[in-house]
Design goal:
Elements (H helix, E strand, L loop, with lengths): L5 E2 L3 E9 L8 E9 L2 E7 L13 E9 L1 E6 L1 E2 L2 E2 L6 H12 L3 E9 L6 H10 L7 E5 L21 H12 L4 E6 L6 H9 L3 E4 L6 H9 L2 E4 L15 H8 L4 E4 L8 H10 L4 E3 L13 E4 L2 E6 L2 E4 L11 H10 L5 H8 L1 H6 L17 E4 L5 E6 L2 E4 L8
Parallel strand pairs: 2-5, 6-9, 9-10, 10-11, 11-12, 12-13, 13-14, 14-15
Antiparallel strand pairs: 1-21, 2-3, 3-4, 5-19, 7-8, 16-17, 17-18, 19-20, 20-21
Helix pairs in contact: 5-6, 8-9
Length: 399
């Protein structure tokens, strides 16, 4: 999206053929949403709208209007990769390209890199000024060498006291959210507790942890599981592993990549049923999304886009080429999840995970104007972030 695609008015209105208020609630038919100074000022039925004066605020019509999508795991988009250039220009590019898939807010994700390279990512997000970026997600480097996925194994390492001090010190002066994916079986219990007590959101990922190790980590503050089913210990007859822990421990939430490549549709359906209200959609997208790029490198490995699948030469998945609107559509059409729930997985659940349910994840008067606008095929048409309406090039608004 460019400046020409954005509608900037002190006040304007959306006509939603179907308004999904959030929280899995049924949609409301034919609603007018008035937006003023970045907030939702009124919501009223179309039948209650008074005759329009000549100077009426502009009206934009969409098939579906839902609470703004929040992506907790996005590595790159629009030709930019956060690891390659962790600065505000990259963040702007990622946010704009992610909007093509209906994403309003995101946690740019910095994956495993040598030493304390993650500090550059923290500094970049701290320098960002805008509602699109809600925080930062560090995925590594404190992972299991046995479950590296596409992460460079040589850069995976144990967490040190200095790492904990750096991360806790950063959070102390940061107004956003810091999510950290680590392998809990590789972390010292004292480190987990310190990180949790500092306000860092801890997720397990790239982990071979047993269910018992997961339970002990949850007692110390572990909150969730990163890209459920991928790069983690699976359920077996006598060892539930990370997946079983996510299913059975109601204290845990999880993100899942619904692109048709990372997780089979039946497993998407199973996870959505077992973890109702605890499962959110993430894109795990790379720089190919929203761009013409079809290959890139992660450390010394070449990753190519082949039939919608990002993969290294040995077949290892290398992130995803995915918008959250596509993930919602996959959950509805392939996994049989009701649209109300799929939309909540893209908005309300991640808002809860971040502790931001008071601002995001619902459409209500007085809240920040954070809206994802879709057509009947569930393709994103526009997003509203901070009161600014930005159209995608996927579909056009109705007259």
């Amino acid at each position: 999206m460019t400046a020409d695609d954005r509608t900037i008015h002190a006040s304007y209105r959306l006509l939603a053929n179907r308004l999904f208020p959030g929280g899995g609630e049924a949609p409301l038919q034919d609603r007018i949403i008035e937006i003023s100074n970045g907030k939702i000022s009124h919501i009223l039925p179309l039948t209650d709208m008074p005759d329009e004066p000549a100077d009426a605020a502009p009206l934009h019509q969409f098939d579906i209007v839902a609470p703004g999508f929040i992506d907790l795991q996005i590595n790159g988009a629009g030709g930019a990769m956060f690891n390659d250039m962790p600065d505000t220009a990259t963040l702007a590019c990622m946010a704009s390209a992610a909007g093509k898939g209906g994403t309003c807010h995101l946690l740019p994700t910095f994956i495993t890199a040598p030493g304390t390279s993650y500090m550059a990512a923290l500094d970049a997000v701290a320098a960002w000024d805008g509602p699109e970026i809600l925080g930062v997600h560090l995925e590594g480097p404190f992972l299991s060498r046995e479950k590296p996925g596409i992460h460079p194994p040589d850069a995976i390492r144990p967490m040190t006291d200095d790492d904990v001090a750096r991360l806790c010190g950063f959070v102390g002066g940061f107004s956003g959210r810091l999510m950290l994916t680590l392998a809990p079986e590789e972390a010292a219990p004292t480190h987990l507790k310190q990180l949790h007590d500092a306000g860092i959101i801890l997720f397990a990922g790239h982990s071979r942890a047993s269910a018992r190790e997961m339970s002990l980590a949850v007692d110390l503050g572990l909150r969730g599981v990163t890209h459920l089913f991928n790069a983690c210990s699976q359920m077996t007859a006598r060892e539930p592993g990370v997946v079983g822990a996510a299913f059975t421990d109601s204290r845990l939430v999880a993100g899942i990549i619904a692109d048709g490549h990372h997780v089979a549709p039946d497993n998407l359906a199973l996870a959505a049923k077992v973890m109702a209200g605890r499962l959110c959609l993430v894109s795990d997208s790379m720089q190919t999304y929203g761009s013409t790029i079809d290959s890139f490198r992660v450390a010394d490995r070449q990753v190519r886009l082949v039939d919608g699948r990002l993969q290294a030469e040995d077949g290892t998945l290398g992130g995803a080429h995915l918008g959250l609107d596509e993930a919602v559509r996959m959950m509805v059409t392939k996994a049989g999840v009701p649209l109300t729930e799929a939309l909540d997985m893209a908005s309300g659940v991640p808002a809860n995970i971040l502790g931001l349910a008071g601002s995001y994840g619902r459409i209500e008067t007085g809240r920040p104007a954070s809206l994802s606008c879709l057509d009947e095929t569930l393709a994103a048409c526009a997003v509203v972030v901070g009161g600014i309406l930005s159209h995608t090039d996927t579909c056009s608004e109705e007259s």
